Amino acid sequence: MNTDKIALITEAGNGFGHKFATLLENHGFSVIIATKGEVYHTRQTLTQGNIEILKTDLTQRRDITQLHDYIKKRYDKLDVLINNGEIANGFGQKIDQLRMEEDVKSLYEVNLFSILEITKTMLPLLKKSDMGKIINISSALGDINKMKDDGFHYANYQMTAYATAKAALEMFTVLLSRELRTTKIQVNSFDPIRLKNCTHNDVAICNQVEKELLELLDIGKVVGPAALSFFK
Ligand SMILES: NC(=O)c1ccc[n+]([C@@H]2O[C@H](COP(=O)([O-])OP(=O)(O)OC[C@H]3O[C@@H](n4cnc5c(N)ncnc54)[C@H](OP(=O)(O)O)[C@@H]3O)[C@@H](O)[C@H]2O)c1
Questions:
Q1: Residue-wise over 41-56: b if at least 16 C-beta within 10 A, else e?
Q2: Nearest ligand 1 atom, CA 109
Q3: Which fold is adopted by the domain 5-216?
Q4: Tens digits of per-residue pLDDT, 150-165?
């Protein structure tokens, strides 16, 4: 039986994925980061200690299968899956400016469809964990109630593809959490940026946010309101 704690995080860039990886490594996890392009090349020297970076195009089923097969062979289980990779586009774009292929469908491939695919593929490995956690990284832009409020800071961002894909991801999180509620696996959303904690577009994880993430993973205590948490 493999007693190491294993985490898989999508994305390796200058953004949150790498920060989440470092945080988990500091809490004793072996971390696999799955990412695709430029960042993979510039960061592969970071494959050291307990973080390794595996080149993965999340939109390619073959790549996701290879990732699964690697984890199965090496660890035969997965404890934490953080669906964090994304593309963002279309800031301020009005409906007549939407480019369906370049902006909308390409974004949905990464921000929604690949998450369904990777989650489905990794589920058998997560079921072998005694603490399986799936964290879908959300955004306030996908929060319908916040976006209805004219006073909300991001209400006029008008990132149609990004915001609608994040809203759909939120629903997937709810549905999967309900489906898995009789298993040991917990499914949650986590928004890394909330105005009370962080500045706009700041990819530093503030202390409070860090605590909340660790609490969701049952490896830290939360102080104050937690991220969206369903059923458990
Ligand atoms: N930054 C914010 O202000 C903010 C606010 C709220 C929520 N969030 C959420 O936080 C998460 C991380 O955001 P971030 O700003 O840190 O992101 P980021 O810096 O834009 O990084 C996104 C990463 O996703 C990877 N990626 C894109 N397409 C891919 C594909 N097909 N296959 C594999 N990897 C792919 C990219 O890798 P390559 O470079 O290798 O292509 C990139 O490293 C996202 O889910 C985002 O929605 C961010």
A1: eebeeeeeebbbbbeb
A2: 31
A3: Rossmann fold (3.40.50)
A4: 998 889 999 999 999 9
